[in-house]
Specification:
single chain; 287 residues; alpha+beta; OB fold (Dihydrolipoamide Acetyltransferase, E2P); 5-stranded mixed beta barrel
Length: 287
């Protein structure tokens, strides 16, 4: 293979000659520059010395070498972080060298609201186009399946966290820190998470194939605490009185509090039992 054909890979080359700004490395047929800025070994090389480098294309479109070990290479996969987002281009990823790699918008969801944001993590590999430019490619569902581990019935109801690797209206798919491949049905999330977003949830079903169903919704007790807090905060903002009670319309409750009427009634009932609020003529008052 030529040096260009090894773009995106780690190769071992020989120092052909030394310049003020770096080293020219060779495979015996072609040369490539290892600039001092791309040498992170803190040492000087000698002519004829063998050096292991990663080949990439620099910002000027030239083949270049770096001793920096990338997190990912062509044919291999790894988790990398998002460092920038450009609406008209895509997202840029830190693969561990001086140049970030692009994951193009054509490889991202149609809805920009679920695009990865800075700090999100993606499981990717590198691909090289016909012009020998390096781009990122997200792992397919099959690749995720290959790295996943099977859950057991003992994992049921376990709290888990991990990153989203695919999302759609019907639901989202994630890989947990334990390596479980999980599906989050749309009914088990309050909003559609971003690709690459870290989420926390719990296992609500373990399938025969070892994959799991996950819920991102809080447990009933946690949800009750959160809903009750919302009601109390709203009461505080209105000097302890609000025109809402257990007879209020479901639509009004949803608009004001962002919760269902049943959730509202459960939280309100708890606050009444705890002696924190009372109702009178359709209004609720804080004690």
């Amino acid at each position: 293979m030529t040096l260009q054909e090894n773009t995106g890979r780690i190769v071992e080359l020989t120092v052909a000659r030394i310049a003020d700004f770096g080293y020219f490395l060779t495979d015996g047929e072609e040369d490539v520059l290892l600039h001092h800025n791309d040498n992170d070994t803190n040492r000087e090389f000698k002519e004829e010395e063998r050096v292991e480098v990663f080949l990439y294309v620099d910002s000027r479109g030239r083949l270049a070498a770096t001793t920096m070990k990338p997190h990912v290479t062509v044919g291999e996969y790894a988790w990398v972080s998002v460092v920038d987002v450009k609406q008209d281009t895509g997202v840029f990823l830190d693969i561990g060298i001086n140049k970030d790699v692009l994951l193009g918008k054509d490889d991202l969801p149609v809805l920009e609201s679920v695009w990865p944001q800075k700090g999100d993590m993606l499981y990717i590999t590198l691909r090289v186009n016909r012009s020998f430019l390096i781009y990122a490619r997200m792992a397919s569902d099959q690749v995720i399946q290959e790295i996943s581990h099977s859950a057991t019935r003992s994992d049921f109801n376990k709290n888990v966290h991990g990153h989203i690797y695919r999302t759609a209206r019907v639901g989202s798919w994630m890989i947990t820190a334990e390596g479980f491949k999980g599906f989050i049905h749309e009914s088990q999330r309050s909003k559609e998470p971003r690709v690459g977003e870290k989420v926390e949830g719990r296992i609500i079903d373990v399938k025969e194939d070892g994959t799991v169903n996950i819920s991102l919704l809080p447990r009933k007790q946690e949800a009750l605490d959160e809903d009750a807090t919302k009601i109390l905060e709203y009461l505080d903002s209105r000097n302890g009185a609000m025109p809402y009670g257990d007879k209020s319309m479901a639509e009004d409750i949803n608009v004001r509090f962002g919760m269902s009427k049943s959730s509202f009634k459960r939280a309100l009932g708890r606050l009444m039992r705890d002696g924190k609020v009372y109702q009178e003529e359709g209004w609720t008052y804080k004690k």
